């Protein structure tokens, strides 16, 4: 079941917490820093399409329950609503590891404002749900992952760079990025 109504005459808000931050892929009217409460960004999804294959999975982000997540909210014109939802479904639900949902997100700014936004939450019951992996396991999957959208390493480093540009720091992702950069530099000097 899909949470977003294609037929609403209202503008659509979309919450991005990973690659949507740096590569939304759809037109929008407004982009605002935002916070979602009740879910956190986690590298908890085995990627079989975009950043890996079933034989050599990569590892991508999901919104998992609990905590909070800083990201970006995009406001899409009502006239582009259906087109945007169709695009996001094709992109985010290639293997149905994400559940489409509507969640309240808080937009940065004064006065503080909240909106209902389309989000893609990880389905913990899906075979691609990785759960919480050690840093060494994350490094392994990210280094081996390469899929339709390119190397998994690029995905992680681009996400960290985008978060830093927003003034955010995700301690776990930053630790992984440092490991990936170190491993890459060691390979280059060998």
Bin the helical content: 25-40%
Question: What structural category characterises the helix and strand content?
Answer: alpha+beta
Indicate the low-confidence ranges by residue numbers. none
Task: Give the termini distance in whole angstroms.
Answer: 51 Å
Strand content: 25-35%
C-alpha Rg (nearest Å): 17 Å
Strand arrangement, largest sheet? 1-3-2-4-5
Mean pLDDT: 92
Write down the overall geometry: globular
Number of strands: 7
CATH class: Alpha Beta
What is the architecture at the second tier of CATH? Answer: Roll
Secondary-structure blueprint of this entry?
Elements lengths: L11 E5 L2 H4 L7 E18 L10 E19 L4 H12 L5 E10 L5 E10 L12 H10 L1 E2 L2 E2 H14 L5 H19 L1
Antiparallel strand pairs: 1-3, 2-3, 2-4, 4-5, 6-7
Helix pairs in contact: 3-5, 4-5
């Amino acid at each position: 079941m899909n949470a977003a109504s294609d037929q609403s005459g209202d503008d659509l808000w979309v919450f991005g917490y990973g690659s949507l931050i740096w590569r939304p892929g759809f037109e929008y009217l407004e982009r605002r820093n935002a916070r979602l409460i009740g879910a956190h960004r986690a590298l908890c999804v085995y990627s079989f399409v975009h950043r890996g294959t079933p034989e050599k999975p990569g590892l991508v982000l999901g919104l998992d329950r609990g905590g909070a997540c800083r990201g970006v909210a995009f406001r899409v014109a009502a006239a582009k609503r259906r087109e945007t939802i169709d695009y996001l479904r094709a992109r985010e639900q290639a293997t149905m590891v994400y559940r489409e949902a509507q969640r309240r997100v808080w937009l940065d700014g004064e006065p503080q404002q909240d909106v209902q936004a389309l989000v893609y939450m990880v389905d913990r019951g899906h075979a691609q749900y990785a759960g919480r992996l050690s840093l060494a396991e994350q490094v392994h999957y990210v280094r081996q992952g390469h899929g339709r959208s390119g190397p998994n390493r690029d995905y992680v480093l681009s996400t960290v760079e985008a978060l830093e540009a927003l003034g955010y720091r995700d301690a776990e992702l930053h630790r992984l990025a440092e490991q990936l950069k170190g491993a890459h530099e060691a390979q280059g000097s060998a």
